[in-house]
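About this split. The held-out portion is used to measure sequence recovery: a designer receives only the structure tokens and must propose an amino acid at every position. Recovery is the fraction of positions where the proposal matches the reference. Here is one held-out target exactly as it appears in the evaluation file.
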């Protein structure tokens, strides 16, 4: 691994704060689309046209009124501010990339950005897997070396019992992917009776996998109403998803996502490595490599985070500790204490 320069890290912190501020200050001026109207029998009716996850749509606003005219004026007045914010965010991202920080691959970034725009992370989605590992490295101030982060899989984990800050907010993952017109299709499962939990593009390695924490030993796909999609249950995922952090997805146009705590990601990789089948030796090696890199970095920079994550893991039962210790012995990894 290689440290990211101090000036670049300051820019990253500034970008994250500005993204959070822009998110908190969204108004009607932030909506992608345009207002239009129709005149029917002398009456003016207003509509809003936008490209939604399901495609192009025209939403009826209502007949002409003082209230709607004020809404139109507010959008017009805020348009310059929105454009200025977008230019500022893109400029900051370009400066950070010029500072040597590798952005997320364009195809991958395009998908994650659409998921963010569709509210996936607002309704509890958390990026996991190697994309999250890349973002965690940037968050911690390092570049990872080659094959520790080489994949185009996008794993999005979602809990089935998330308390939403905005009641009624929904995120339609299949529609969001379809709206990209990139050719995503549901990947069939071995049992035709089970709904797909993955989406892929023919002829490409890019793939989106939806995961959720296993409950009560059930390992069949779970339908997540707030995502309008099924997710594959994964053991130990509840530990990974607890108290996630906001993170910047660095690309030409950056956005905010949610990722696991770095220490929990590392320790979860230890556990997962012991669950791999014999035929998944390459994935197991990658699990242990990512865990080792993160643990070594955290021991140097943030040992308290690692100690707290380890205490929580151990409190979940002897089997958790045994698997983590076995992984450490296998991968030559040293834990605190």
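Reference sequence for scoring:
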């Amino acid at each position: 691994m290689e440290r990211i320069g101090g000036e670049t890290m300051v820019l990253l912190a500034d970008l994250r704060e500005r993204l959070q501020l822009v998110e908190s200050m969204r108004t009607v001026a932030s909506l992608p689309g345009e207002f239009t109207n129709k005149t029917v029998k002398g009456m003016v009716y207003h509509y809003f046209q936008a490209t939604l996850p399901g495609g192009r749509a025209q939403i009826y606003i209502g007949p002409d009124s003082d209230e709607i005219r004020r809404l139109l004026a507010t959008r017009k007045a805020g348009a310059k501010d929105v454009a200025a914010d977008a230019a500022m965010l893109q400029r900051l991202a370009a400066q950070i990339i010029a500072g040597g920080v590798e952005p997320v691959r364009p195809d991958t970034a395009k998908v994650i950005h659409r998921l963010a725009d569709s509210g996936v992370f607002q309704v509890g989605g958390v990026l996991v897997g190697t994309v999250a590992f890349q973002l965690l490295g940037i968050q911690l101030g390092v570049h990872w070396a080659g094959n520790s982060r080489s994949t185009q899989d996008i794993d999005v984990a979602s809990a089935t019992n998330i308390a939403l800050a905005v009641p009624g907010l929904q995120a339609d993952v299949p529609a969001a992917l379809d709206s990209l017109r990139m050719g995503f299709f549901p990947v069939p499962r071995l049992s035709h009776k089970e709904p797909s939990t993955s989406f892929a593009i023919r002829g490409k390695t890019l793939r989106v996998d939806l995961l959720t924490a296993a409950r009560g030993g059930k390992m069949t796909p779970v339908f997540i109403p707030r995502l309008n999609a099924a997710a594959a249950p994964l053991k130990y995922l509840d530990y990974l998803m607890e108290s996630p952090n906001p993170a910047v997805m660095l690309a030409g146009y950056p956005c905010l996502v949610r990722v696991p705590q770095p220490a929990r990601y590392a320790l979860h990789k230890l556990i997962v490595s012991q669950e791999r089948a014999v035929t998944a030796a390459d994935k197991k090696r990658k699990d242990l490599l990512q865990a080792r890199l993160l643990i070594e970095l955290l021991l140097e920079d943030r040992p308290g985070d690692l100690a707290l994550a380890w205490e929580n893991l151990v409190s979940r039962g002897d089997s958790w500790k045994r698997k983590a210790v076995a992984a450490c012995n296998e991968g030559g990894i040293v834990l605190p204490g």
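Annotator remark: The first helix runs from residue 6 to 24.
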